[in-house]
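Supplementary Text 2. Reproducibility record for the structural model of the 354-residue chain.

All settings were left at their defaults, and a single model was retained for analysis rather than an ensemble. We include the record here because the model underlies the residue-level annotations in Supplementary Table 4.
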Amino acid sequence: MSQIRLNWIAGQAFKEKQRGVPKVIAHQQWARLFMGGLGCWIFTELVCPAFAINIRHDVPDASYLTLGAQPQFNATVRLEVPGTDVTGTIIGDGSWVLTVAHPLDGGVTPTEVSFTKNAITYTGTQIVLHPNWTGDLLGGNDLGLVKLNTVVTGVSPAMIYTGNGELTRIGTKVGFGDTGTGAVGSTGGQGTLRGAQNVIDAFVSNSGTVITTDGANSRALFMDFDAPDSPINFLDAEGDDPPSYSGNNEALGLEGMLNTGDSGSPLFIDVGAGVWRIAGVGSATVTEEGLYGMNHPAVDERISDYGDAGVWTRVSTSSEFILSTIPEPGSAALASIGGLALAALWRRARRQPR
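Retained model, structure tokens:
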């Protein structure tokens, strides 16, 4: 089992001016990154709430827009939350949205959360945060559920993944956040749905301090933004990381990374026969400073450029919380989205082996 150990030295909040608007971003500094006995690097990283999707600099944006518009991702919505917009996914009987806890924490009331789908506006009536949520973006408990005032019509709710076979699968992330490219970082432009793909490289331990390939005690998924013209990435710093550690050191055709506004964005995996499940929910980006050489100045504060990484709260390890909170699809949902097949899928998700 390979591990990267992260030694924390600080955790604080700071304000960053972005497009002239002060913005509070969670900040945690890491002093050392140890990987087995193969070496260590001294550097600083920023861990920020997940920001829409940054894309490859050499692939047309239209390709990412087309991926995000695929019908299997139609349950993805842009949630309006006081002070920000995030992403969520309609699940269950169609009257619940799965997202992250951090934008809902701190006194947000259910009626302050809303979204519009097919020209109909839906508002929240209840917010349920993961019982173990502490504010730690990397701890694997950054999950929130929003009960809606009515069932969403014209949309098939997404299903969650309850197995344990996430590692090395290709994940498709879908979100409404800012965009940009890996070459320059985030450039803004929230509100447009995009999709992107990445290999699920590793897990983050329950403590939030170890990146590992052991999923037994891990509640978060970890992926890095691979550059198309270099094998060096977060998990292969200066080429010292064994190739067997990372699930993939080469950029996928639609490689991408979380960006501002992508908090809560679903990470879908294809479990076979075109059946898609939510394996993760976008929680944070990890921004390297001074570690990655290509196109990086000595101090690199760009968000979601090549070499950065993303953390998704792992859905399978919180499936009991999710499935015990939201109801099985009922008659209203069955009438609106197509019947008994949905109820059968829901029951199957509860006992899904992988």
